């Protein structure tokens, strides 16, 4: 069983209540999941990381069993800035005023926004299989429109995407994965359970609506003005879109001065497809 030695909690951050697993000892390491998953995506490596770190793995607001704050016209409640506020409050409630953070997919977007907004709390940051949100939209082309059309679809006004996703949310969410076989059984069951909740589907759409609007504005306000102060690790799947379409290290060097990273022999779901390699890369960076 994943997270075997971890404590499961519900922690009120002031704006949301997060489902959280935490365990281990040593320097604090916050793990942030991506779409369309929950914190269970870290299950293949969390116990090993807990040998060296105090590991904290929450469901982001709107996802899994975390609460779903009310939406607004500007989509700010599902912006990465709002999610970053949640995790700062979460870590403070666990006794940590600074910490390391690793984020995959949408969680990576929360992680780098946190590092920009609150540099005093971030010791080191690792982002998995992303480039900055504003750069995704700035560089969008025919390949992006055909392969990653869900970015535009999910960002459409309510209730258009929610209506169609509800017909078969599991197929919609995991259509680009290499089947459920890459996922640990308990983790995949958690994802499927969450996708059965219309409030989760709505929150996921709000996440992408915020990404296409609020988050892009936040990124562009920072472009050329401030950079990520913490050491930044960039990991991407060699079989995925990020490595094929972009030069990840070159792009991230416009956003941080201390950038290292590498490709991992995987598609998008790096920690689940290649847990041993992901574990080694994270340990080497954070230790």
Describe what you observe in this structure.
With 287 residues, the chain is an alpha/beta fold. The chain has helices at residues 43-49, 80-93, 106-117, 133-138, 142-147, 150-154, 160-165, 169-174, 185-195, 198-222, 241-245, 248-252, 270-273, 275-286, and strands spanning 7-12, 17-24, 28-32, 54-58, 99-104, 122-128, 232-237, 259-264. Strands 1-2-4-3-5-6-7-8 form an eight-stranded mixed beta sheet, sandwiched between helices. Helix 2 (80-93) crosses helix 3. It is globular, with a radius of gyration of 17 Å. The two termini are 25 Å apart. The mean pLDDT is 96.
What is the number of E strands?
Answer: 8
Instruction: Show unreliable segments.
Output: none
N-to-C terminal Cα separation, in Å? 25 Å
Order of helices and strands: EEEHEHEHEHHHHHHHEHHEHH
β-strand percent reads 15-25%
**Class based on secondary structure composition and strand pairing:** alpha/beta
Mean pLDDT: 96
Backbone shape: globular
Characterize the biggest β-sheet. Answer: 8 strands, mixed
Helix content: 40-55%
Please list the strands of the largest sheet in the order they lie side by side. Answer: 1-2-4-3-5-6-7-8
**Rg, Å, rounded:** 17 Å
Q: How many helices in DSSP terms?
A: 14
Lay out the secondary structure:
Elements: E1 7-12, E2 17-24, E3 28-32, H1 43-49, E4 54-58, H2 80-93, E5 99-104, H3 106-117, E6 122-128, H4 133-138, H5 142-147, H6 150-154, H7 160-165, H8 169-174, H9 185-195, H10 198-222, E7 232-237, H11 241-245, H12 248-252, E8 259-264, H13 270-273, H14 275-286
Parallel strand pairs: 3-4, 3-5, 5-6, 6-7, 7-8
Antiparallel strand pairs: 1-2, 2-4
Helix pairs in contact: 1-14, 2-3
């Amino acid at each position: 069983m994943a997270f075997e030695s971890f404590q499961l909690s519900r922690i009120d951050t002031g704006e949301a209540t997060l489902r959280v697993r935490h365990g281990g000892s040593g320097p604090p390491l916050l793990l942030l999941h991506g779409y369309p998953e929950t914190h269970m995506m870290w299950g293949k490596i969390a116990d090993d990381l807990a040998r060296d770190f105090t590991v904290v793995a929450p469901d982001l607001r709107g996802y899994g069993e975390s609460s779903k704050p009310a939406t607004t016209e500007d989509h700010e409640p599902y912006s990465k800035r709002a999610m970053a506020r949640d995790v700062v409050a979460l870590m403070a409630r666990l006794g940590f005023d600074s910490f390391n953070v690793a984020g995959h997919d949408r969680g990576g977007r929360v992680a780098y926004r946190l590092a920009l907004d609150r540099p005093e709390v971030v010791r080191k940051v690792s982002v998995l299989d992303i480039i900055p949100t504003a750069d995704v939209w700035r560089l969008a082309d025919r390949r992006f429109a055909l392969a990653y059309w869900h970015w535009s679809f999910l960002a459409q006004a309510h209730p258009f995407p929610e209506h169609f996703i509800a017909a078969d949310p599991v197929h919609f969410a995991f259509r680009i994965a290499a089947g459920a076989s890459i996922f640990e059984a308990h983790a995949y069951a958690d994802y499927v359970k969450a996708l059965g909740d219309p409030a989760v589907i709505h929150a996921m759409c709000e996440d992408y609506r915020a990404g296409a609007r609020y988050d892009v504005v936040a990124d562009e306000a920072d472009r050329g003005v401030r950079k990520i102060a913490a050491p930044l690790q960039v990991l991407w799947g060699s079989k995925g879109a990020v490595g094929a379409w972009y030069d990840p290290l070159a792009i991230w060097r416009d956003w941080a001065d201390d950038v290292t990273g590498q490709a991992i022999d995987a598609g998008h779901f790096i920690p689940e497809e290649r847990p041993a390699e992901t574990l080694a890369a994270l340990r080497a960076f954070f230790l």
